[in-house]
Description:
46% of the residues lie in helices and 18% in strands.
Amino acid sequence: MAQFRRIRDKSTGWFIYYWWHEFDYLEEILNEKKKFVDTKLRERLRFEVDNYFFLCKNCQTSKTKYNFDDAFELNFRCPDCGSPLVAQDNQKIIDVLKNRLAVTQKFKISIN
Length: 112
Ligand SMILES: [Zn+2]
């Protein structure tokens, strides 16, 4: 939807239209982008908070993370080496995500 302002030119009696379509469009794009980042961060945060992850400390190179259900099915044993799977502290990841969310929310879009 394009917005416009109508002003009447008194000397000619004509109407002059000032269109704000592109202006609004730009603002919309910026807001959509912000919303997208915000949503992605929230989804990731929810995921990290909702899931306890387990990993094998013995397999240092393995970056495989198991959520509770997977770890449970594996009897909390690493499928590669048989070592016990230990719960990963994902508090740091959660803190980083929360900080980034706070920054995103403080960032006010202004194109004036
Ligand atoms: Zn292992």
